[in-house]
Specification:
Chain lengths: ~90, ~90, ~90, ~90, ~90, ~90, ~90
């Protein structure tokens, strides 16, 4: 298993179609398009200058929207993942 | 439903015409033009270096003016939204 | 009415002539020229890293000089305004 | 009268000649040349992240040397002034 | 022996093949590709602005994934190592 | 006399020859070459974000080595000086 | 003698050969190559924003590896030294 460090999360990509199961459709525009994923593992959070460690706002299992072109691709046990910083996560799909 | 993270807000666009219902008219100039929107959901706020989480100044339902070209477009359940950081919000229309 | 957020202020432009009523004349030079305005509304101020919110140094009604080319133009109820950050304000005309 | 904001000061320019009254001569070199001025008014100072407001090191009446090309020119009541940040002031002439 | 300073770690490279022993396969894409390594020694951590020294999240012996092209190569006693900052470490392989 | 502000110091240049009195010789290389000087006056120091003013590490009379091309030249009472920030000082010659 | 300021250290270069006495060999690659040196003198450390001065992790006599192309060359009493910031030091050779 992969354990992300700091404020990083590991996600599985949810392939974007015109209309996904959760109802998100990415528009046809020149703007940066977000992508959808599912959180697999989260880091222990970043440390503030007062020494406090700040827990992430997302948990394993959450479906999220993140900024496209962010993160690093990795394959593990034959599956593809993406390692993101939590600041690249835009919203949780509830 | 979409829940924005940190200091982000989700808004519905209010289409800008020469003169909108709320009385805002965007001028004809070379300067960056603001746009109008309605807040749909707000994040829990950014965390200060002393560990305190700072609540946003806007709430769901507020009509706002924001900097054009800021934010990320997303469609959800067939409707278009924009995810902004609260620092891209210029003013509340009261 | 428009309520600016954070450290922003909303001003009415005072049209700059060679010599304005308040006695300010903008010089003929290659340097950045300031402009004059009147404060219409002020935000609640920016938040310091210790959580304290810092009140602005200007109030509604103040005549100010600000850096030209700063801020965002907006029309509201048929009148033109400019939304500035308070760091773009150079001085108060007393 | 003009009241500068924050860490800004308003100065009157002292025209630089080969040798000024106070004895400062600007050298003939490719380096950035400083200029001399007299402080007319000072702001209330910048605010530290602990909320404390830091008084300026210069007062009205001080003769100062500042970095050339810094600041913003303004005319008021027919006289020319320069609005500087105190970080552009190099030294006080005592 | 080499003792890294601050938030640095020293690692041995694990040569990346199409499929490594631990099951990580680096994908064929234009994105930045991570690499795998084994931690040999860790620094005492970076110091926060409150004076506290923050221990690293990795220990000697950990298998890690790090951002390719990060770090500095060094040979010591005939073996090749890489000196990284801990912020270049993406995840621990558990 | 000139009183430098904040973390600035005023120095007299010590002309660099192949071998100076204090034994410093500047090498013939493509690297940035340091220069030698003597401190004439020091500022009251920079202010930390906790409000404390940090005294400089150098005093009037110290011989120092500083980064070449740093600082601002000024003439006063017919003598040439250089105004530096203390962060441009590399070492004290003891 | 030279006393470095703040977080600076003064080192003597240890000429890099294919294989040095301490066993470090610099690899033949396009990556930035580190160099070896011996610490001659250390500064009193940098000051944190809480006013605390942070002692360096290296002491006079330590053999270190540092990032090539960092620091400033200086000759003193006929010997060549390099003045570095401690953040340019990668590791101590123990």
């Amino acid at each position: 298993m992969l354990k992300p460090l700091g404020d990083r999360v590991i996600i599985e990509l949810v392939e974007s179609e015109e209309k996904t199961a959760s109802g998100i459709v990415l528009p046809d525009s020149a703007k940066e398009k977000p992508q959808e994923g599912k959180v697999v593992a989260v880091g222990s959070g970043r440390v503030l200058e007062n020494g406090e460690r700040l827990a992430l706002e997302v948990s394993a299992g959450d479906r999220i929207i993140f900024s496209k072109y962010s993160g690093t691709e990795v394959k593990y046990d034959g599956k593809e993942y993406l390692i993101l910083r939590d600041s690249d996560i835009l919203a949780i799909v509830q």
